[in-house]
Amino acid sequence: MANPSIYTVGGTVQAGGGIYIPRQADEELLGLCRSAIFAYVLTPRQMGKSSLMVRTAQTLTDEGIRSVIVDLQELGANVTAEQWYFGFLVKLEDQLMFDTDVVSWWQEHEHLGVSQRLTQFFERVLLAEVEGQVVIFVDEIDSTLSLDFTDDFFIAIRYLYVARATNPEFERLSFVLMGVATPGDLISDAKRTPFNIGQRVDLTDFTFEEALPFAEGLGLTSNEANQILHQVLKWTEGHPYLTQRLCGALLAKSRESFVETRFIASLENKDVDRIVNSTFFGAMSEQDNNLQFVRDMLTKRSPDPEVLTIYRKIRRGKREVVDEEQSLAKSHLKLSGVVRRENNVLRVRNQIYRQVFDYKWINKHLPFNLRDRWEQLKPALPYVIVMVVFSVLMTGVAVYVNDQRLIAQDAGDREKQQRQETETQRNNATREAENARRQQKTAEEQRGEAEKQKRIANKESERAKKGEEQAKSAQQLAEERGKKLAIALDKTKTAEQLAKDRQAEAENQRNIAQKQEQQAIAAKADADKRRINAEILADSLKSQNLMASNLELDALVAGLKVGKQLKTPNKNVQPDTRVLVVATLQQVIYGVKERNRLEGHSNSVWGVAFSPDGQTIASASGDDTVKLWNRNGQLLQTLQGYNRTFSPDGMSPSSSLNSVAFSPNGETIASASWDHTVKLWNRKGQMLQTLQGHSSRVSSVAFSPDGETIASASDDNTVKLWNRKGQMLQTLQGHSSSVNSVAFSPDGETIASASSYDNT
Fold it and tell me: How far apart are CA 228 and CA 241, in angstroms?
């Protein structure tokens, strides 16, 4: 059966539910990330780089390596440098969950420039709080090209790489840059050093073997699917987007014909060509977003008039156009995707691009002065051809004459070479005769040497006889030395006693050293105790100073942090210190004054929540409404949509609201009610969804960290999981009574529920 859902032509494969096909780039990028090497994947659009990024990040997470994905498009374009850099840190906070309050930290260091604040945050917060290796994927970096303050961002990334030489902690941190840009585009100021770090990872088109999984979606036998895939790749050359787009078009055509796979199996080359024509050529070329991107890169976004001129040379193919990394026009052509590099030569990427961006299209979009010059030269073209033919003929004659001259010159050179070889051979013969005479002389010398060795052997024989006599003398000498050895043994015993005495002295010194070590440990423990008490007292003093400066909330936060330290048992904290901290905390708590009172509900308020950015407060009330307030107490919006009725017992309103929660991006509000439902709202007060499925009142509601799942707790003894479309995903059963509260773990993988009735 055909399966069109495996073909992804927009967004990541993981989000679209398609199939992911690994390429060589997968292993390259994963290896660089594991080794903490800075890398970049800078390719045309729709080549699969975002899917590669998500796949690599998931693999690293499974291996215990912390990975973060930051899409720079989410930070916006109409923002200040302050907002942009702070937004980048907020994205890190959302995924790494720092203990440090990022908002307060950023404000406390506002005397520093945004770039310096960013690098200090990485050093003093991220690396201090996150253990192990961290890989940060920065996607859509081309969105920074229109901003005038992001040079410092990439210079900061380069600093984090260079700082490894002086601070080994930075070796745990690495970056992967993704987008449609060249390294030279990232730092636009020509007076600054270009972005020159990191290792490039190239994303290539699919080979036939790599693309085989796409054939499975056609619902054919293996041989038939492979034949169709060959026809598809003839047009796309394995381009990820175009290949999946064409396979999807084949399936769509089959459904129109009501013959499903039989239609696909009967396709011939001309039929596939017809479908390609109706999908990509003519008016359809104006609608395809990939072709539109390539068209804009070649025209509107072209940095150099030479881009189209060079592309025309590549398409003509008469002479090879060699790739040059320093050429702005050639780099732009590669980023557009219309050409690719093969063995250091640029070629048109596939037949679809070749036909859409043909000579007619090129001439239409060439700069106006080039087209004018062509129109001016067209009438003179016949004369030019005649002159070219005449020039070719004259060139041929000149080449013939020059060839004959070269032949004669070669003959003279060969004759000269032969004379030199003859002279060389004569010299070699002379040297060989001389060598023969030397060898004869050497042989005579060797005979004389042999006679000499014979005489020496006779002398050695006589010496051997003398040696026997000397051996007897040596034996007598050995006996005398044996007597001396006995005397030496006595002396050795004395030396052993001396060694034992020295060993005892060494043991005594070791005991002294151990005592000194114990004293040093005690001194260190005392110093640690003093340091801990000094730090606690300093934090307590900080809380008092903040209170004295009327920064009551900050003083309360600082006081609670100190109180949290005291809550953990620590024998190093002195009683006086503990008493002083408790007194300070009491002073702060009793001294904090109410800042704002949010009044506007007509009944009891049962739930309240802050938005993730801390600027908006949501309150849920028994008056059947959710109200949104700013921090100054001003009412921003009232979310209405419940109809007050009463429960069967007639005692409690069935639409009273019990709980409210913000989604992680702050754009969606969820409310839980006595009417057995959860409702989703946007910040404008519009109801988005009603989640129905509980059989009793809903007491609590919570969003997962990625914002895609909602958990609700109810008096029907269950916890239910929903998606944002209102579809129930799972019912969690296990409580024997009402469930009062529910929460997600920071990684979104675990849900905790609480019941005040079954005590679990």
Answer: 17
